[in-house]
Amino acid sequence: MSDVLRVLREDLHVEPSEIFSTISEHPIGAASLAQVHEVTLKETGEKLAVKVQHRKVQPHSLVDMATMELLVNIVAKIFPEFTLMWLADETKRNLPVELDFINEGHNTERVKNMFKHFKWLKVPEVRWDLTSKRVLTMEFCDGGQVNDKDYLKRNNISAEQVTDRLGKLYSEMIFVHGYVHCDPHPGNLLVRAGPDGPTLVLLDHGLYTELTNAFRLRYSRLWLALLRADVKTLKVVGNELGVHGDLYKILMCIVSGRSWTAVSEGIDKRKATVKEGQEIRDFASEHFTTISQILNTVPREMLLIFKTNDLLRGIETMLGTRGASKSFMTMSRCCIRAVYEEQLELCNSMWCRFSVRVRSLLTSWSLSTYELYCWMRSTWFATLLLGLHVAP
């Protein structure tokens, strides 16, 4: 606790006791870079959350990055087939960004404004008067962790609605805005009961990746092809991403977290199973070198997308909602929006714009028809039809 008080004193240039009437003795959240304490503002009695960087993390981070780079270079010389420089490069690029809490505050405000149309999303307000490079003071937000099934049950929160809203948020981040929160682990995603379903609370905005427009559109095309089981387009996009030959199949398995059999038949048509998950893990162990080479080849922004996808899939798996048809519909709509908006921008005639809008409407209509079919198949309507069918 003495280190926490010292950082507060050094960065805020005042004794913490002059600002805060209480500071929780134990952190309400802790990680390798910082810890979060609940505090009470002396002047107003307002409850706030203060994120304080570990005092020695900055100098230690320089040593850690140098050590990692040295080890990766040694491994590369001994085992040339293991191409792990991408790991060292990403760490060197991202760690200094994560250690700057002023940058995190700006990220917080940007995403709060970007998704203000989602009334069910809560992003905490930043207190700039109590924020520095090592101290970030925010509005205190409570809730249960997004993967806590017992908490959801006790508070009558639908796991399916949580997954649906999480899917909407991240689909817009990736495919529409190209601005992606890259650390959606359960500690950074809280949920609480709201007036119109669950409210999601998004925390820890230190690490975002900003996708180039070209990559965002290419990634949208990739996912549309995955959802349509369009193997031909998958191969073309894989080639555009620098992954040639049949290696594109492994890339698509990495992106989707599914086996090639599921990808080629349609990931929305084959439910993910425990057996398939084990097969994927076994394959990854056997082909580690090839996977490492692919990761070293693809655009850098894709690496953080992989991490984000894995964390989101982990949450869905724990909630038992992975592979729900509604999540595929949400993703498809965002991909369609991204692809057709780009086509509209390239149009230079009224006929071209009309044609693109018609194609967009037809695609959305076919998606809505499929969504209606999925709903009818999985609700009381299907039971009713079955009852009529078997009735004498």
From TrEMBL:
Domain of life: Eukaryota
CDD domains membership: ADCK1-like
Pfam families in the record: ABC1 (PF03109)
Protein kinase domain ranges (all copies): 22-305
InterPro entries attached to this UniProt entry: ABC1_dom, ADCK1_dom, Kinase-like_dom_sf, Mito_struct-func_regulator, Prot_kinase_dom
GO biological process: lipid homeostasis; mitochondrion organization
GO molecular function, one term: protein kinase activity
One GO CC term, this protein: mitochondrial inner membrane
Family: Belongs to the protein kinase superfamily. ADCK protein kinase family.
Name under which the protein is recorded: Protein kinase domain-containing protein
